């Protein structure tokens, strides 16, 4: 019974993916998991599969006590009923809507009956909560990278998601915005406590945002462990290059960035 | 050294002259007929032509039928294009090619095909007649011919517009809980709007100029199925200046359509998000 209180995303899927087979098992609880691997290893495909945007041959995806996909039982919930918040690399704000209307869009999707004025008030509350109430009427093209991400996150949460999927959240930002966005995301993810999967190429993202790392190689999850353990015994050459090169520790500016993990979380 | 520079300068001049000459020839070739259309005979002859008995029924019929056609094309073409653009079904690609056929076949062939399908003695004509409906050689036939030849212009623009939409935006909209109609009406249509309007305008222009299929399938009856292009054809046998006046009407209308389209699309030019602020 106590298990039901902790939201949990369990994934065990299998499908043909180009030259190889996507075969991944992943358990995501309240601790964010970073999905890393070389280009073409199937990270984005796995994310899209969880979203229900890619056809799967076998497997089962369960979010808390709700079955999203089960090949054996022929269950395949459509994307719009999965309650997964998806933040793509460029945040996916609707360019034809202002910041507040982007958030109102999410609210409208979940509750048709609320009148537009009320919905705008709710959207405003969300923007205020993320400190961007003053930008409500701005179009996404006139927002900075950090601001866009706040709007995207406000919009995602307004749809009352049960899990969070982030695809390279800092990849499209310049260095300064990256620091800001990373700090903001880290705080948000931690306070939300939703199952979170984060695809990234950036070791600093992993360090700041995730506590566990799943290493994907040719469609297979070859390891899923604490960041510290991955770092001390990298399962693939990719993981070793990504986490254990001096370049990373150098840029973080402290000797052992990944050993601070537990300290920060306590 | 200077010799080389000289010859290089000469060859550059030669190149510019050739480019200007060739391009200019085509430009003149396209512009001169329009000049003749406006200037030949003078305003008096043109005004007299506009007074011809053929003019106003044809203009009224053309505007009425093309308006109905463009509405039918947009109303049916939008769902079809949305489905074609998103279908992973291989046959959808073949269907797309098939739907472009009316553009590449001569309109007269389209007219024959319509006649063979819906004409009184056509494949489905008997069935339609038993239902009390014989479309051939009526206003309905005019509209059918126009829809047949003009729909591909809208369909192509719409399929391309929907296909160019950022798949991430559609994925995000669905993950936020957008139902299929909301996805279409609140995300896809607003984002594709400039291209859809452009496609509708091209399709309208094509319907307005439709001649061959209309002649075959609807006939050339003044006041009943005689659209402006058919009236021009008829007027040519009476008096060239009447034909000229009617042609000018069409040109002015088409030009106005092009201009307003440009103005409009500049207004709603899609603002894409820059990758970095």
Beta-strand fraction estimate of chain B:
under 5%
Unreliable residue stretches of chain A: 246-266
Label the structural class of chain B: mainly alpha
Low-pLDDT stretches of chain B: 269-277
Envelope shape of chain B: flat
Per CATH, what is the topology of the domain at 63-218 in chain B? Answer: MetI-like fold
Oligomer: heterodimer
**Greatest contact pair?**
A-B, 42 and 25 residues
Average residue pLDDT of chain A? 85
- Major sheet description of chain B: none
Main-sheet strand order of chain A equals 7-8-9-3-10-11
Query: How many beta-strand runs of chain B?
Result: 0
What percent of the residues of chain A sit in helical stretches (DSSP H or I)? 25-40%
Bin the helical content of chain B. over 70%
CATH homologous superfamily assignment of the domain at 63-218 in chain B: MetI-like
Our count of helices of chain A gives 10
Give the CA-CA distance, first to last residue of chain A.
Answer: 26 Å
CATH class wording of the domain at 63-218 in chain B: Mainly Alpha
Beta strands of chain A, count: 11
List the helices and strands and how they pair.
The complex is a heterodimer of chains A (266) and B (277).
Chain A: E1 9-17, E2 20-28, E3 33-36, H1 43-51, E4 58-63, E5 66-70, E6 75-76, E7 84-87, H2 99-110, H3 116-129, H4 145-158, E8 163-167, H5 175-192, E9 196-199, H6 203-209, E10 212-217, E11 220-226, H7 227-232, H8 237-244, H9 246-252, H10 261-265
Parallel strand pairs in A: 3-9, 3-10, 7-8, 8-9
Antiparallel strand pairs in A: 1-2, 1-4, 4-5, 5-6, 10-11
Chain B: H1 2-39, H2 42-50, H3 55-86, H4 90-99, H5 101-104, H6 107-118, H7 125-130, H8 139-164, H9 167-175, H10 180-209, H11 212-217, H12 228-238, H13 240-267
Characterization of the model:
In chain A, strand 10 and strand 11 form a beta hairpin. Chain A is globular. Chain A is built from 10 helices and 11 strands. Chain A has 266 residues and is of the alpha/beta class. Chain B has a domain at 63-218: MetI-like fold (Orthogonal Bundle), CATH 1.10.3720.10. In chain B, 80% of the residues lie in helices and 0% in strands. The radius of gyration of chain B is 24 Å and the shape is flat. Chain B has 277 residues and is mainly α. Residues 269-277 of chain B have low confidence and may be disordered. Chain B is built from 13 helices and no strands. Classes of the chains: A alpha/beta (266), B mainly alpha (277). Chains A and B meet through strand 7, helix 2 and helix 4 of A and helix 9 and helix 10 of B.
């Amino acid at each position: 019974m106590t298990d039901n209180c902790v939201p949990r995303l369990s994934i065990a899927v299998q499908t043909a993916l180009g030259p190889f087979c996507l075969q991944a098992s992943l358990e995501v609880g309240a601790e964010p998991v970073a999905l890393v691997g070389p280009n073409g290893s199937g990270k984005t495909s796995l994310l899209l599969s969880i979203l229900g945007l890619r056809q799967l041959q076998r497997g089962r995806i369960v979010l808390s006590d709700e079955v999203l996909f089960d090949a054996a039982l022929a269950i395949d919930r459509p994307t719009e009923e999965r309650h997964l918040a998806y933040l793509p690399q460029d945040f996916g704000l609707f360019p034809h809507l202002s910041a507040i209307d982007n958030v109102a869009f999410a609210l409208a999707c979940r509750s048709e009956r609320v009148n537009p004025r009320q919905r705008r008030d709710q959207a405003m509350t969300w923007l205020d909560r993320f400190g961007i109430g003053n930008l409500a009427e701005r179009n996404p093209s006139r927002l900075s990278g950090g601001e866009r991400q706040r709007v995207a996150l406000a919009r995602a949460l307004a749809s009352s998601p049960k899990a969070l999927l982030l695809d390279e959240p800092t990849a499209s930002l310049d260095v300064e915005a990256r620091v800001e966005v990373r700090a903001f995301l880290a705080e948000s993810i931690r306070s939300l406590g939703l199952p979170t999967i984060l695809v990234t190429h950036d070791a600093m993202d992993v360090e700041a945002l995730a506590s566990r790392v799943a290493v994907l190689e040719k469609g297979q999850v070859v390891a899923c462990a604490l960041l510290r353990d991955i770092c001390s015994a990298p399962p693939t050459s990719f993981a070793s290059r990504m986490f254990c090169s001096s370049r990373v520790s150098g840029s973080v500016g402290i000797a052992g960035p990944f050993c601070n993990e537990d300290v920060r979380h306590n | 050294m200077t010799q080389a520079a000289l010859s290089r300068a000469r060859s550059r001049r030669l190149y510019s002259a050739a480019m200007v000459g060739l391009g200019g020839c085509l430009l003149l070739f396209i512009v001169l007929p329009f000049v003749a259309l406006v200037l030949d005979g003078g305003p008096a002859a043109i005004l007299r032509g506009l007074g011809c008995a053929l003019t106003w029924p044809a203009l009224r019929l053309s505007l009425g039928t093309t308006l109905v056609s463009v509405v039918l094309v947009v109303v049916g073409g939008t769902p079809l294009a949305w489905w074609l653009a998103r279908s992973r079904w291989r046959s959808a690609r073949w269907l797309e090619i098939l739907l472009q056929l009316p553009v590449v076949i001569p309109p007269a062939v389209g007219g024959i095909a319509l006649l063979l399908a819906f004409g009184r003695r056509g494949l489905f004509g008997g069935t339609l007649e038993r239902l009390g409906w014989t479309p051939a050689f009526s206003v309905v036939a005019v509209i059918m011919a126009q829809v047949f030849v003009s729909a591909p212009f809208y369909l192509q623009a719409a399929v391309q517009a929907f296909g160019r939409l950022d798949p991430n935006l559609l994925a995000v909209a669905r993950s936020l809980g957008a139902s299929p109609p909301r996805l279409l009406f609140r995300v896809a249509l607003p984002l594709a709007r400039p291209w859809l309007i452009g496609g509708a305008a091209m399709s309208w222009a094509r319907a307005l100029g439709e001649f061959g299929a209309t002649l075959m399938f609807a006939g050339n009856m003044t006041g009943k199925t005689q659209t402006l292009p058919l009236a021009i054809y008829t007027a040519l046998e009476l008096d060239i200046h009447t034909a000229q006046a009617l042609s000018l009407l069409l040109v002015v209308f088409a030009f106005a359509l092009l201009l307003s389209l440009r103005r409009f699309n500049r207004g709603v030019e899609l603002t894409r998000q820059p990758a970095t602020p």
